[in-house]
Amino acid sequence: MKVSDILQIKGNTLYTVNPDTSLLEAVNTMAEHDIGSVVIMEYGELVGMLTFREIIETLAKNNGTVGTHSLRKIMDDAPLTCTPETDVNEVRRMMLERHTRYLPVLDNRTLMGVISFYDVAKAVVEEQSFENKMLKAYIRDWPEERTEERSDERTAQP
């Protein structure tokens, strides 16, 4: 399974902001759309990512307030990315190694979408469930050996 398969199922709704957007505005966008991240774009290029991790770090530094910072000072300016052709197992490994929950998907320099750890886990479970059903159907439809052939084989002499 490839990342493009996940994007097909998930759809291609994207929420982006620019690096000069205030953290408060970005948090409101995330809350309004019930999303855990926003992609930060500037001049058509991915320049960063904002997730709840950066928001929590900012809240901790500012005694519980978001302050007046722009995203440029807070964002992850080197987010881990993948392509639509990246294998899902590779994505799982990448996300686990880097403790990343959200991954922008780039085709060359074009943003195709964002996949989350949840999206990957859901896709893997659905794929395994499908394989499990296919294997059970195969086993259930396994042709039985005829007993006549088996008894003939035992009595045959070389």
TrEMBL record:
Entry-linked InterPro entries: CBS_dom (IPR000644), CBS_dom_sf (IPR046342), CBSX3_CBS_dom (IPR044725), Diverse_CBS-Domain (IPR051257)
Organism ancestry: Bacteria, Pseudomonadati, Pseudomonadota, Betaproteobacteria, Burkholderiales
Pfam families recorded: CBS
Domain CBS: residue ranges: 8-66, 75-130
Domain of life per record: Bacteria
Keywords for the protein's UniProt record, in alphabetical order: CBS domain
Entry protein name: CBS domain-containing protein
